[in-house]
Amino acid sequence: MISIVIPVLNEAEGIQDQLSYLLTAGAPQNIAEVIIVDGGSTDATIEIVSNVMEKKSIPFPFHLLTSEKGRAKQMNVGSKQATGTILYFLHADSYPPMNFDTFIMEQVAQGNRAGCFQLKFDSNHWWLRLAGWLTRFRWRACRGGDQSQYITKELFEEIGGFDERYTIYEDNILINELYRRKEFVVIRNELTTSCRLYRKKGIWRLQYHFWAIYVKKFFGADADELYRYYKKNIAS
To answer: Angle 153-64-61 (CA atoms, 0-180°, nearest 5)?
Structure first.
């Protein structure tokens, strides 16, 4: 069964829509639980999640956990509480395809222990459409956490989980290790993710900074240097 792990921080605007979607997107017999891990939200995120959990009609368990801020830490906390044999890490603004659980389980049954979905942004901008289209290929440069990440719990624990030194780029560190082990597939069904940060920062400006972070890591930048760059140019 699949344990869905969602790290959140001030996601009141959209978390209810995502959780409502998940209630119908997967089959109850395939999903062990949905684990929401809050990193210190100061908005209504926790209240909204709690209200969803109180509904008697939910087809599978929901759990709300708290953690230190940082997606790597939050996702590791969630994975430790997971009871499923497959972990599925999902960003709070991403919507997997209908029947995502079946697609994931089919890949695991074929011996593919880790992978992601093809990406589609909720935008018609030509660059974001192209960027999403390119994710159908297995090229390492086309990977990112927005595509979500499934991985068997056994393999995740073998790797040691997410590297908590990384406040950003943690998804890519895990993906790099999976590529090194030749343990990665791209499922050719589309996950839709929000381009809200592109709208806020500007498409070309944000894309430049994402590329800069990728290049900095390629040339040996450590976790602190990447975070300083992110904090100065993206988070500010």
So the answer is: 70
H or E element that contains 9: none
Task: For residues 51 and 213, give the distance between their C-alpha atoms in angstroms, rounded to a whole number.
Answer: 38
Residues 64 and 179 in one domain: yes
* Domain assignment of residue 221, given as a range: 195-236
Shared-domain flag, residues 87 and 21: yes
Q: Rounded to 5 degrees, what angle do the CA atoms 206, 211, 216 make? A: 125
Cβ neighbours of 182 (radius 10 Å): 6
Please count the structural domains in the chain: 2
Q: How far is CA 29 from its chain centroid? A: 22
List, in sequence order, every beta strand (DSSP E) within 146-214: 149-152, 185-193
CA Rg, the chain, in Å? Answer: 17
- Predicted confidence (pLDDT) per residue in 112-154, tens digit: 999 999 999 999 999 999 999 999 999 988 898 899 999 999 9
Q: Are residues 69 and 110 in the same domain?
A: yes
> How far is Cα 86 from Cα 32, in angstroms, rounded to an integer?
9
Handedness of CA 7, 12, 14, 17 (dihedral sign): positive
Q: How far is CA 43 from the centre of its chain?
A: 21
Q: Which of 53-62, 64-73, 90-99, 202-211 has the lowest mean pLDDT?
A: 53-62
